[in-house]
Design brief:
Distance between the termini of chain A: 34 Å
Oligomer: heterotrimer
Strand order of the largest sheet of chain C: 6-7-8-3-9-10-12-11
Number of helices of chain A: 12
Strand order of the largest sheet of chain A: 7-8-9-3-10-11-13-12
CATH class of one domain in chain A: Alpha Beta
CATH architecture of one domain in chain A: 3-Layer(aba) Sandwich
Helix content of chain C: 25-40%
Number of strands of chain A: 13
CATH superfamily of one domain in chain C: P-loop containing nucleotide triphosphate hydrolases
Chains: A alpha/beta, B mainly alpha, C alpha/beta
Largest interface: A-C, 48 and 47 residues
Structural class of chain C: alpha/beta
Structural class of chain A: alpha/beta
Distance between the termini of chain C: 37 Å
CATH superfamily of one domain in chain A: P-loop containing nucleotide triphosphate hydrolases
CATH class of one domain in chain C: Alpha Beta
Radius of gyration of chain C: 21 Å
Number of helices of chain C: 10
Helix content of chain A: 25-40%
């Protein structure tokens, strides 16, 4: 991963993160040596399909992995403001969660507590982290609801999650996340469970608040369309590893890794006619049994002997900030032309 | 005395071997592995297996004929000795032999009665849960009535009506008074499963309601049914023992563990072993049923702490 | 040529809660409120909508998994809603379904082979000795090796499970296939495989599809015609190309603009709708979309008069008073 001297230090730095799950069927190496940086004020898109390890990565940052059967292996480093999050005491970690690093989850309806009003849940954040009294916290909560665009916030605050739509629940989650003006917002598939029109609203809200608060956003998604519109840089994950890092424009214009290229070719587009969609043959291997060498080689149209035996490291690509875990970066001549 | 001892040892060996074989054959299944990780459950299984083998091999294992009264004057109420390992009762019958033969009755009644209860309960519960509407309402009101009346009371009513209860009738009565909770359980499973996509898929394929119930719903509901059945056997066993003790269940001279306890009641101070050993056996076996039932419940529905 | 599938005035209202002692029942949930469309043999009609649009309910009523409140469904001349259980079961040989959740729609306790053989057993299409061969044949048609037959669903990936679901539906050699969000739960790379498979099968077997989906980009690739649903009604209908190139209804336009485009340089002119989908028990008066409609010419007529489907030429119909005017 190349970094020029002029870029400011990253606000979050993950180095060689390994999160394994011990199951009856063997050890699932869900995250297997992931390193990435999150720069201040940027939106980093983390793209991957199921089994890529992107959600486990995001949960590992705040140590939300259930300890058996999951383990964040020693040797992993997650640096935030000069401290390793993985070695903080529980009390110190609690001071960070929801306060300096906040998280928004995929299913807003299930992520909210069904027996408390949304006003109470948002106010709780203020009471715990900002030390406000109950009435003060409530006022703040209503204020936050307004800020996230919930109409009639005074009344809505008294309602329970099941009385609200998915979009409104997600706005509530965002309000809770933004209460303490965190430095980092981790959004794990925040719009996947929502309708397209609501998704547009939420993405717009995230854009706006990021601009207002200047926080860094880690946007985890499987939707390349969202990433194209919202992210400054993109990290592509496959089989528990980072396989490509790039500025957004570069990723879409000239993807280095065959998996990225395959993904882009599989995405159905509005403009195209009824052409043939090329998928990626095969399926993601199980996390208990990653293939030897390059993990993508069984499905890769360009694979040759080296790919089957040697696992490639992240190699720097031609453009600044671009890197890919693929031997084609060193041996571009081996790239086969696309099939007709 | 030699042959029965040999048979007993053989039975023990068979029991242990059978349980080990079961453990090995089912290794592949997660639920089986979880079951065998429960020491209580495994011991319970061994105990039950042992008594089952004993009951099955009764003629080979029992040293004496349970109805025999070899020395009604000299040998009655004899304490445990080499000749009679658990002593003799008031009729000088060997307690150990009676225990073995009694196991046939006690276990047999409990298992058959549970079978009856399960059959009725599962059928009614499945139909009620799948059909819903007025069928469900009527059936559940029946269940409500059944649950409201205490079981012992219903049994005693039946006993008062028929003076001497033949064994088959006892089994039927025990079964027909014990299906209510199971039907509620199965109904709950049916209700929750009927909305699942694979049930829709079966209906869309053209499966008749009967096929949907038998082929799709019931196998999925099997786990709670099995757990309920296992726990119920222990219950029925206690019930039968209690009824027999009161004189209303199994009639003499058929030995059952309950009747043996009753028989020993008169000379409790004089010869406590006559009641103690059958009573202990009831306790151990019922506890084993419960242990196995609990272990099965955990095996079918694992919680993260036990993973 | 008359259409293979003809739906007229389909209505499905779910009864509201009973209220106190059966008196004062609350308003019914109007999941589908007057839907009509037709599909010619061999074609694909996509039914598009978001949550609460009623599209899934339409699929379920056509299959008679739930009984419709009103309306007519004619399949190849047969009045489906009037059929009794015997003829209905026979009809299921012509009309099948693929569900959204591939893991949920397969019985976890049945092997793949059993699941595919089940329709053969129900409709007596193959005697016991012939079944394994038939199952292997069907597995081959969906691109799975016959060795998959003894496996259980949990051993398969999402894409493979969906293929099994397709094989199962094909076992009866249907003519009409209702695809209820068949690729929604799949990863993008697998999605493409399954869509290609569905297209190939349509060509090979001359199948007619009703494709229910919410992803407009996917629909673009598979559908000949599109019907857009909102709050239980069809608000626009027409050939795919026309709908995508010149949508008439403001909701269709908003929907199309909201789809994220995987191209960082694409112009982002999102029409962001405010508010939420209307309550299915108390839909707005007049045009159901009017409270959220961003059309500049929106006026009082929209709140009072329900717009009918107007012909905009080229078989495109839209229910909007101002469909002809640009936004």
């Amino acid at each position: 991963m190349s970094e020029t001297a002029a870029t400011p230090p990253p606000v979050l730095s993950i180095r060689d993160l390994k999160t394994y799950f011990v199951t009856g069927a063997g050890t699932a190496r869900a995250v297997d040596g992931v390193s990435l940086d999150l720069r201040p004020g940027e939106t980093l898109g983390i793209v991957g399909e199921s089994g890529s390890g992107k959600t486990v990565t995001s949960l590992s940052i705040l140590r939300l992995i259930p300890e058996p059967p999951g383990h964040i292996m020693p040797g992993s480093l997650i640096e935030f403001e000069g401290r390793n999050l993985l070695t903080l005491s529980p009390a110190e970690l609690r001071a960070v969660r929801g306060n300096q690093i906040a998280m928004v989850f995929q299913e807003p309806m299930s992520s909210l507590n069904p027996v408390f009003t949304v006003g109470d849940q948002i106010a709780e954040v203020a009471r715990v982290h900002l030390g406000l009294s109950k009435p003060e916290a409530w006022i703040r909560a209503v204020d936050m609801l307004n800020q996230v665009g919930v109409p009639d916030a005074d009344a809505r605050a008294y309602e329970y999650p099941h009385q609200l739509s998915g979009g409104t629940c997600q706005r509530v989650m965002i309000a809770m996340a933004l209460m303490c003006r965190p430095k980092i917002l981790i959004a794990d598939e925040p719009t996947t469970a929502l309708d397209v029109t609501v998704q547009a609203q939420i993405l717009e809200l995230l854009e706006k608040t990021q601009a207002d608060m200047g926080m860094a956003v880690m946007l985890i998604t499987h939707d390349l369309g969202i990433v194209a519109g919202a992210a400054d840089r993109v990290v592509v994950m496959y089989a528990g590893q980072v396989v490509e890092t790039s500025a957004t424009r570069d990723l879409f214009a000239a993807p280095l890794h065959p998996y990225t290229a395959g993904l882009l070719a599989s995405v159905p587009r509005l403009e195209s006619g009824r052409g043939v969609l090329k998928g990626i043959p095969g399926s993601v291997p199980p996390a208990t049994d990653w293939p030897p060498g390059c993990r993508f080689h069984p499905r890769c149209p360009h694979a040759w002997d080296r790919c089957r035996t040697e696992e490639p490291p992240l190699l720097s690509g031609p453009r600044p900030g671009q890197s890919a875990r693929c031997w084609l970066v060193q041996e571009p001549a081996r790239r086969k032309p696309p099939a007709p | 005395m030699a042959r029965p001892t040999l048979a007993l040892v053989g039975a023990t060996v068979v029991t242990i071997a059978a349980v080990e074989l079961l453990r090995r054959r089912t290794q592949a299944q997660g639920s089986a592995r979880r079951f065998f990780a429960h020491p209580g459950g495994v011991w319970g299984l061994r105990v039950l297996m042992f008594f089952a083998v004993m009951a099955a091999l009764a003629p080979l294992i029992a040293p004496y004929d349970p109805a025999a009264q070899p020395g009604i004057v000299t040998l009655q109420n004899a304490p445990p000795s080499w000749a009679h390992p658990l002593g003799t009762d008031a009729y000088s019958s060997d307690i150990w032999s009676r225990l073995i033969y009694g196991g046939r009755v006690s276990l047999g009644v409990a298992l058959l009665a549970t079978l009856v209860a399960m059959t009725v309960g599962v059928t009614i519960g499945a139909v009620a849960g799948y059909a819903r509407g007025w069928i469900d309402a009527v059936l559940m009101r029946l269940v409500d009535i059944g649950l409201a009346v205490p079981r012992i009371f219903m049994l005693l009513l039946a006993v008062a009506y028929w003076n001497r209860i033949p064994l088959t009738l006892l089994v039927l009565l025990l079964g027909l008074t014990g299906w209510f909770t199971t039907s509620r359980l199965v109904r709950a499973e049916a209700l929750s499963l009927r909305g699942r996509p694979f049930v829709d898929a079966a209906r869309a394929l053209g499966a008749s309601p009967a096929r949907v119930l038998i082929r799709h719903l019931l196998p999925a509901a099997l786990a709670p049914i099995i757990v309920s059945a296992v726990l119920s056997v222990g219950n029925v066993m206690l019930l039968e023992a209690g009824l027999s003790f009161l004189g209303f269940g199994v009639q003499p001279p058929t030995p059952s563990w309950g009747t043996m306890v009753a028989d020993g009641q008169a000379q409790l101070a004089l010869a406590p072993w006559t009641s103690f050993f059958p009573g202990l056996t009831i306790a151990i076996v019922v506890m084993s049923w419960n242990a196995v039932g609990d272990a099965l419940r955990d095996a079918f529905d694992p919680r993260p702490e036990h993973a | 040529m008359s259409a293979l599938v003809q739906v007229d005035g389909l209505v499905k209202h779910y009864r509201g809660s009973r209220g106190w002692l059966g008196l004062k029942p609350s308003a019914p949930v109007r999941a589908v409120d007057g839907v009509s469309f037709s599909i010619d043999a061999g074609k694909t009609l996509a039914l598009v909508g978001e949550t609460g649009s009623g599209k899934t309910t339409v699929g379920r009523t056509l299959l008679r998994l739930v009984e419709p409140t009103e309306g007519r469904f004619t399949f190849d001349g047969l009045d489906v809603f009037r059929l009794s259980s015997g003829p209905l079961r026979a009809l299921r040989r012509s009309m099948q379904v693929i569900f959204q959740d591939p893991s949920g729609s397969l019985n976890p306790r049945m092997t793949v082979g059993d699941a595919i053989a089940e329709p053969l057993i129900i409709h007596r299409l193959a005697a016991r000795p012939e079944r394994p061969a038939r199952v292997a044949e069907l597995l081959g048609e969906v691109g799975l090796d016959p060795s998959f037959a003894p496996r259980y669903p949990h051993e398969l990936s999402g894409g493979q499970r969906q293929r099994v679901g397709i094989a199962r539906a094909l076992a009866v050699r249907p003519r009409f296939l209702i695809c209820d969000e068949p690729v929604t739960a799949l990863d993008v790379s697998v999605q493409a495989q399954v869509l290609t498979l569905l297209r190939d099968l349509q060509r090979t077997h001359g199948l007619t599809y009703l494709f229910i989906a919410h992803d407009l980009a996917v629909v673009r690739h598979v559908a000949d015609d599109v019907a857009v649903m909102y709050a239980g009604q069809i608000v626009e209908r027409g050939p795919t190309d026309r709908i995508y190139s010149s949508p008439r209804h403001p909701y269709t336009r908003a929907l199309l603009s909201a789809v994220p485009v995987p191209d960082p340089d694409a112009p982002r002119s999102r029409i962001v709708l405010s508010g939420d989908v209307p309550s299915p028990t108390h839909p707005p008066s007049g045009c159901r979309f009017h409270p959220r409609c961003p059309h500049p010419l929106k006026d009082s007529r929209c709140a009072s008069e329900i717009p009918g489907l107007e012909d905009f030429g080229g078989e495109q119909w839209a229910a909007c008073h101002f469909g002809g005017k640009p936004m």
